[in-house]
Amino acid sequence: MTPHPPRATTNVWVVEDSDAFRLELTELLDDEPTITCQQSFSTAEDALAALATNPAPDVMLVDIQLPGANGIELIRQVNASHPALCTIVLTISENRQTVVSAICAGASGYLLKNDDFSDIVDGIHMVADGGSPLSGAIASMVLELFKKAPPAAEDQSLSEKEIKILNLLADGEIKKEIAYQLGIAPVTVDYHLRNIYKKLHVNSQAGAVGKALRNGLI
């Protein structure tokens, strides 16, 4: 039997604001024979500046909660400027809206910091091979959000404003920012959200975004 060829080295950047966790992670990654942690950053802005002047890595590990621009905004910008660069969320957050927003922004995977380090390494290899690694808890959540449900087309006649709000939610925007971008009051955003929930038969922002994506409404 022909042996498998050796795995090529995967170049990784880490974007993490915790100095202690960033140092520990980069040291562990550098101990892996098939992974090279080329650079690490504490902010999205530093990572984007480096990306503008250096060859892109194969994989970028991104925390969600960063000073300045958050991880979702970083993923969105990286996906737009370097679509071949795979981004993996590595965070403590299991919030449904955060998961949906990260996936909508273009994240290739979503892992948790309390996962075994071997799972993080496997996730890096998986995404480098074209896969989409998800922590067990996140995979269950995604399956639940996108579970096929009987369509109710007559209830899904969303207005143009409601679709705009759903798109902004999918981009990770909060209600205050949505109100500002649309030139309406936050209470008006709440009014539209109630209508969206009623039409889509959901009771949360994450549920609304997930069902809208599943049914091709956004």
From TrEMBL:
Record-linked Pfam families: GerE, Response_reg
Keyword presence, Phosphoprotein: yes
InterPro entries in alphabetical order: CheY-like_superfamily (IPR011006), NreC/VraR/RcsB-like_REC (IPR058245), Sig_transdc_resp-reg_C-effctor (IPR016032), Sig_transdc_resp-reg_receiver (IPR001789), Tscrpt_reg_LuxR_C (IPR000792), WalR-like (IPR039420)
Gene3D superfamilies according to UniProt: 3.40.50.2300
Record key words, sorted: DNA-binding, Phosphoprotein
Keyword Phosphoprotein (UniProt): yes
GO biological process: phosphorelay signal transduction system; regulation of DNA-templated transcription
PROSITE patterns the UniProt entry points to: HTH_LUXR_2 (PS50043), RESPONSE_REGULATORY (PS50110)
Gene Ontology molecular function, alphabetical: DNA binding
Protein name as annotated: Response regulator transcription factor
Species for this entry: Sulfuriroseicoccus oceanibius
